[in-house]
Amino acid sequence: MPMKYTICAGGVMMALVLALTSGIVRGQEAGKAGQNWPAAQEGDYVVHDFHFQSGESLPAVRLHYYTLGRPEKDANGRTTNAVLILHGTGGSGNNFLRPIFAGVLFGPGQLLDATKYFIILPDNVGHGKSSKPSDGLHARFPQYEYADMIALQHELVTKGLGVNHLRLVLGTSMGCMHSWLWGETYNDFMDALMPLACQPVQIAGRNRMWRKMVIDGIRQDPEWNNGEYATPPRAGMQILADFLLIAGSAPLHLQEDYPTRVAVDKHLEDSMKWLTASLDANDFLYALNASRNYDPSPKLETIQAQVMYINSGDDFINPPELGIAEREIKRVKNGKFVLLPASEQTFGHGTHTHAAAWQGYLKELLEESAKQN
């Protein structure tokens, strides 16, 4: 691999890039030979005749997923040990089956020990091995949004996997935003929420600006050809790669790892080749545009679950100086916000997938939410 960083994403796109998927993971990760967590099981669930918020529909939506462990129910038939973990933009459930996440959380005696918990890792619509534009419909694929995505997740969990209650919903980046929507839309369905790396308000300011720049850059490239390109639209993909490299970066680590002009230029050249060859323009365009109507802020008071909300101080996408998290968490009756200071232990936006950086707060959340039930 030409990059020094390994990206936490999944599928053919190798985790679809830094910023939004799962961020940059510093250093090469070891292979699965020494993994300490059980092998995941894969499956597909098909939702028939699904109607999207846009008014469009599909006769069948395929939802791919990974699971670890087995569901358990109490004497009343209530699922007691299910954990739903939601990936970021362009990623997949496979994001989390890596040493920096699964190796910290899913092993014997760890916080989400897969011999005790039933862990659900879905590929969202538009992502991974689930139904997506690049399957063949291209720009004729329905213009899905976050409300559609969580409705499909809910159908997978309840009808596909037979789970009627979640012990925890944990989400990273886009999954972070989805977790807020889960807490509002299905507010009696889970004990705890852990949103990692997002804001509980509509996407605006610089965050919306750079997303719109990427969307417009792809659409305005003549080679995009209204989504019917034979080869990736070069200019649009260049713009996409440029922004992902910046948005997913951790300044401290970049300065340490690429301390000279020559090192930076070589890294940039290699990264561009890899990113532009690995991404599908339609899939990523759709994934970015899905955030257009996201805004959980009007209903934050309706969240019943215990909430542990975490951002990091070196996150380009969610800069701490905005003060949004500190303001909005006051409206969540069982909510706590933690800002991780930028350090050697944080990795920009991608800190959300480095479980070692925040596992202590997950432990606190699980303990506190257990007291409420």
Molecular structure report:
- The protein is built from eleven helices and ten strands.
- It starts with 5 loop residues before the first strand and ends with a helix.
- The protein has 373 residues and is α/β, with parallel strands linked by helices.
- 31% of the residues lie in helices and 17% in strands.
- Strand 5, helix 2 and strand 6 form a beta-alpha-beta unit.
CATH H-level superfamily title: Alpha/Beta hydrolase fold, catalytic domain
What is the percent of helical residues? 25-40%
Radius of gyration: 19 Å
% residues in beta strands:
15-25%
- Regarding CATH, which class? Alpha Beta
H and E string: EHEEEEHEHEHEHHHHHEHEH
The largest sheet, given as strand count, sense and whether it forms a barrel, is: 8 strands, mixed
Number of domains: 1
Please report the total strand number as a whole number: 10
CATH topology: Rossmann fold
How would the global form be characterised? globular
Mean pLDDT over all positions? 90
Q: Uncertain runs with pLDDT below 50, 5 residues or more?
A: 1-32
